[in-house]
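About this split. The held-out portion is used to measure sequence recovery: a designer receives only the structure tokens and must propose an amino acid at every position. Recovery is the fraction of positions where the proposal matches the reference. Here is one held-out target exactly as it appears in the evaluation file.
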């Protein structure tokens, strides 16, 4: 597929939108798709960073007088939505047919999306603001926000809303790190207040940490930070190490006992690595995430940076120095929130809803390399809520079950594929002349007739390879209406107690 991503970065916007779009682009590229970025050259842009990741960037002209205000998202674009849409369409004119346009920008909403529909493409919107109206095919809000449908002004074709941390995008540099916690005391603190730290919150945090002489404190700042040189000097005078956009940011985060930052994109990276944090919000849109992190007990949220909140931060650090076990508890909770498969889930959905899908459906025996896919699918809420055990499972318990199932003579497990891309799992548990069948599909592939096709394909395989089996049965919960209809459409007949049967005689 051909994917175009429209996003921006500036000293006001910050870098979070671009960073998560790079994570999405990396996954699309990994799956064999082409990705093109469309960005505007405004002060503090990260265009070169995107190019350094080997992505093509179509650059829209900047403005001599670009004045963006932190809380006024309408100023972030620097022009009107209609003009930006026209320039985006023109920039993509020589890029071939566009299958998906991904937009991650607080300055763009339904007006822009309606105009871009001229490309005859599908649209994925990434937005964590609840009050904006959108017209898209997929809508993603990965934050802790209260994302109930009646609180969102969203018009979505197909009604696919991807809500919550399970859809968080993580860059490859984070997904490749396996954090190990060897500390038994609070020693290493990492500070990063975001690329868009226009209020210079970093200065206040550094000053409040100056008295903790026994701690190893490292400060990270963005290259576009207008206070960069003053902060470098402040750190040098105290004895803190200050780094400007270090390449090993993810490793530094993994090695830290505690991080001080904002409830922005790095929230999810900290969760994945299990790094506890103290959070300050530098923009209004970060507040719900900060509150959500505190409610989940993975962070201390202290509001905006001021004298009172900085004093609270000092007290918390002093408390944690004496009670390190609290950090251990926070780490375990944090790692349970982000599993690292969010970006894969979104790419699966884009594949399934793309306008140029190969119609070839296939199934193959499951192997040891399929453990991560089966684990992610098993822990999809829309999947496990219909299981006899309607709860998510740990990776350790799934690994034990999965390896046992692969070795079992009476268990036949298959990975269901579309265009060579995993979209589901099907299993037979065989007892003498009866086989119990179960099937799970990734979100977005239901309702397309795929389930019926895979059931027919699997039963045909069973008939040819297991001649002793005479009856195939499926246990379906009464409330799972969609699955009941799927089995009936594949020729199964309803029996007693929500059991469906298919005779192979």
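Reference sequence for scoring:
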């Amino acid at each position: 597929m051909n994917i175009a991503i429209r996003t921006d970065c500036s000293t006001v916007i910050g870098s979070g939108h671009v960073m998560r779009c790079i994570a999405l682009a990396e996954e699309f590229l990994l799956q064999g798709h082409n990705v093109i970025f469309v960005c505007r050259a405004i002060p503090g842009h990260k265009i070169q960073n995107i190019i350094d990741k080997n992505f093509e960037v179509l650059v829209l002209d900047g403005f001599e007088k670009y004045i963006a205000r932190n809380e006024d998202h309408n100023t972030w674009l620097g022009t009107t939505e209609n003009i930006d849409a026209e320039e985006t369409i023109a920039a993509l004119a020589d890029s071939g047919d566009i299958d998906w346009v991904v937009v991650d920008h607080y300055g763009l909403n339904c007006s822009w999306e309606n105009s871009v529909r001229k490309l005859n493409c599908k649209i994925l919107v990434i937005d964590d603001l609840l009050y904006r109206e959108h017209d898209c095919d997929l809508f993603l809000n990965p934050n802790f926000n209260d994302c109930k449908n009646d609180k969102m002004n969203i018009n979505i074709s197909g009604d696919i809303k991807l809500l919550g941390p399970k859809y968080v995008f993580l860059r490859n540099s984070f997904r490749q790190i396996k954090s190990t916690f060897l500390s038994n005391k609070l020693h290493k603190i990492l500070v990063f207040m975001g690329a868009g730290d226009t209020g210079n919150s970093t200065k206040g945090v550094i000053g409040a940490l100056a008295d903790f002489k026994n701690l190893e404190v490292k400060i990270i700042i963005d290259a576009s930070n207008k206070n960069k040189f003053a902060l470098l000097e402040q750190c040098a005078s105290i004895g803190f190490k200050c780094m400007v956009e270090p390449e090993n940011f993810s490793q530094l985060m993994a090695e830290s006992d505690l991080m001080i930052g904002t409830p922005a994109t790095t929230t999810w990276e900290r969760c994945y690595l299990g790094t506890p944090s103290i959070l300050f919000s530098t923009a209004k849109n970060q507040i719900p995430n900060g509150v959500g992190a505190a409610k989940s007990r993975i962070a201390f949220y202290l509001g905006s940076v001021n004298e009172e909140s900085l004093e609270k931060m000092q007290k918390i650090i002093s408390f944690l120095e004496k009670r390190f076990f609290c950090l251990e508890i926070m780490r375990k909770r944090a790692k349970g929130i982000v599993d690292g498969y969010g970006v894969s889930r979104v790419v699966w959905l884009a594949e399934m809803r793309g306008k140029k899908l190969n119609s070839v459906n296939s199934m193959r025996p499951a192997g040891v390399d399929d453990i991560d896919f089966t684990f992610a699918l098993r822990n999809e809420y829309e999947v496990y809520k219909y299981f006899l055990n309607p709860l998510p499972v740990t990776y350790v318990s799934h690994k034990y079950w999965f390896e046992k199932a692969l070795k079992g003579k009476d268990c036949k497990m298959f990975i269901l594929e579309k265009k060579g891309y995993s979209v589901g799992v099907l299993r037979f548990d065989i007892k003498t002349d009866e086989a119990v069948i179960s099937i799970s599909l990734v979100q977005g592939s239901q309702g397309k007739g795929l389930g019926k096709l895979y059931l027919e394909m699997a039963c045909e395989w069973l008939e040819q390879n297991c001649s002793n089996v005479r009856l195939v049965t499926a246990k379906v919960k009464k409330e799972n209406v969609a699955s009941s209809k799927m089995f009936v459409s594949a020729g199964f007949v309803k029996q007693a107690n929500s059991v469906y049967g298919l005779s192979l005689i």
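Annotator remark: The chain has three domains: 2-170, 173-335, 359-503.
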